[in-house]
Amino acid sequence: MSATNRIDARFAELRAAGRAGLIPFLTAGDPDPAWTEPTMHALVEAGADLIELGVPFSDPMADGPVIQRASERALAKGVGLRRVLGMVREFRTRDAATPIVLMGYLNPIEIFGLGRFAEAAREAGVDGVLLVDAPVEEAGPLRETLARERIQQIFMAAPTTRAERLARVAQAASGFLYYVSFAGITGADRITLGDVEGRIRELRAATAVPLAVGFGVKEPAQSAAIAAFADAVVIGSALVERLAEASDEADAVARAKAFLAPHRAALDAARSARAA
Q1: Is 52 among the catalytic positions?
Q2: In whole angstroms, what is the distance from residue 167 CA to residue 270 CA?
Q3: Which of 63, 218, 219, 250 can pair with 67 through a Cys bridge, CB separation 3.0 to 4.6 Å?
Q4: 47: left (phi > 0), else alpha (psi -120 to 50), else beta?
Q5: Is residue 123 annotated as part of the catalytic site, yes or no?
Q6: What is the reported pTM?
Q7: DSSP letters of 250-262?
Q8: How many CB atoms lie under 10 A from the CB of residue 15?
C-alpha cells in the first residue's frame, strides 16, 4: 500500500470528479462465507467507491434486527475476525484500489490483541476501522496503534452529539466522518433529510474530512438527495436484507448489483442535474 491511505485517495478522486461516494455495508460471512468476496467485487462493479465490511459480533448494540440476524448467521458459520481478515486479503488479490473499512465492536479486537490486529489488518489490506463502542474519548491508544499501520479510525457523529464533543470528534477524525442520520439503531425508517442537511452544514465548519451519511438510507432517491449536501452515502440494512435471501453465490452477486446500481445511477444523475 502507498503512503497515502486508500480512503484519502478515493475521496480526493471523488472531489476531483465532482462525484458523491457510494459506500455499501455487508456483513462478512452472511449469507455464506464463500460468497462474501465475490459479492464485494460485485458491489464495486455496480458502483461502490468504498466498502464497509461488518465484523460479526454476538452483541451488536447499535444494529437493528436485520444486521443482528446477519451477524448471528455468520457467527454460526464460524466467521470471526481472523476469517474476515482473510476475506479482505482474498479481495485484495483482484482489487488493490477500493478502500475497505471494517465496522464492528472493540471486543474481538481486544481478544485478538490491538497491536497484532493492526499489523494483521494492514497486511490484509484494511484501510479503516469503525468501532461503535470505541468513542473518541477512549480511542487514543487504539487510534495511535492503527495510525502506525496507516489505518484510519473512522468516528461517528449523531443528532445528539453535543457541540463540545463534536469538536473533539472533528479534531480526531480521519478518512471520513460518519454522520448517523438519527439517534437509534440501523435499518429504521426515521431519516428526515432537512434535519440531516442542516446538521451536515454545521459539521462542515467543524472538520475538513469528508462527511458520509448513513442509517435509514434505502431508496435511490434518498441517496441522490443526500448527495446534494454530503460527500458520501452509506447503505447497510437494505442491502443486507436483500443479500440474506440469496440462494447461491451467483444469486448473491446478482442481487448486490441489482440493488446498488440504481443508487449509483441516481447519484450520477443528480450530479449531472446540478452541473447543468
Answers
A1: yes
A2: 31
A3: 63
A4: left
A5: no
A6: 0.93
A7: HHHHHHHHHHHHH
A8: 12
**pLDDT tens per residue, range 64-77:** 889 999 999 999 99
pLDDT per residue as tens digits for the range 154-174: 999 888 888 888 888 888 899
The one catalytic residue in 30, 37, 52, 127 is 52
118 Cβ neighbours under 8 A, 6+ residues apart? 145, 146, 148, 149, 151
CATH 3.20.20.70 fits 6-182+191-264, yes or no: yes
Can you tell me the distance from the alpha carbon of 72 to that of 92, in angstroms, rounded to the nearest whole number?
26
Active-site option among 63, 138, 202, 251? 63
- Residues of the chain with pLDDT > 70, as a percent, come to 94
Q: Residue 75, class by beta-carbon neighbours within 10 Å (0-12 exposed, 13-18 middle, 19+ buried)?
A: middle
